[in-house]
């Protein structure tokens, strides 16, 4: 492997860590853990209220891992659980009004963290970097993204930016 290739990978990992640290710092005043923020953002990206298992799949975790996260979101009044009328054994996750407002605040916090990180670049440089990263993401999306195993289109999230 060429040193340039190794440097690019290392640089990307370091910057991803710095971006995460900045986001965590911006999320802390909102009272949510990164996992709760990620779950709340993901719930809002579905076209219809997702089932717990669909949320777990989107987040890339086992279903039992989302239970304590959803418990905390429910306790905070950000989501409610509702019985799925199509399958009474399944639970749907519905954002409350407070959850929708918090999701907006999360988006603003993440955007602020990204603005801080990329402030040293001009708008043109940011646009070029974004285009390059989108190309890499597009080429690798199917390799490691969530598996939807033939689920119907309405159960999949809308085309919003991914949650970090």
Automatic annotation (TrEMBL):
Q: What Gene3D superfamilies does the entry give?
A: Winged helix-like DNA-binding domain superfamily/Winged helix DNA-binding domain
Example of a GO MF term: DNA-binding transcription factor activity
Q: Which GO terms describe its biological process?
A: response to stress
Point out the coiled-coil segments of this chain. none
Instruction: Spell out the residue ranges making up region: Disordered.
Output: 138-164
Give residue ranges for domain HTH marR-type.
5-138
Q: InterPro entries attached here?
A: HTH_MarR-typ, MarR/SlyA-like, WH-like_DNA-bd_sf, WH_DNA-bd_sf
PANTHER family with a match to the protein in the record = REGULATORY PROTEIN MARR (PTHR33164:SF103), TRANSCRIPTIONAL REGULATOR, MARR FAMILY (PTHR33164)
What is the name of the protein in this document?
A: HTH marR-type domain-containing protein
Organism the protein comes from: Prauserella flavalba
């Amino acid at each position: 492997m060429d040193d340039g290739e190794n440097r690019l990978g290392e640089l990307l990992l370091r910057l991803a860590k710095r971006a995460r640290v900045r986001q965590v710092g911006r999320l802390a005043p909102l009272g949510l853990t990164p996992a709760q923020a990620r779950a709340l953002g993901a719930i809002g990206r579905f076209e219809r209220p997702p089932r717990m298992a669909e949320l777990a799949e989107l987040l890339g975790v086992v279903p039992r891992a989302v239970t304590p996260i959803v418990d905390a979101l429910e306790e905070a009044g950000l989501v409610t659980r509702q019985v799925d009328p199509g399958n009474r054994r399944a639970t749907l996750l519905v954002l409350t009004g407070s959850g929708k407002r918090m999701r907006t605040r999360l988006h603003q916090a993440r955007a602020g963290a990204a603005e801080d990180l990329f402030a040293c670049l001009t708008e043109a440089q940011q646009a070029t970097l974004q285009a390059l990263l989108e190309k890499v993401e597009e080429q690798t999306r199917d390799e490691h993204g969530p598996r939807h195993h033939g689920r119907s289109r309405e159960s999949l999230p809308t085309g919003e930016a991914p949650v970090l």
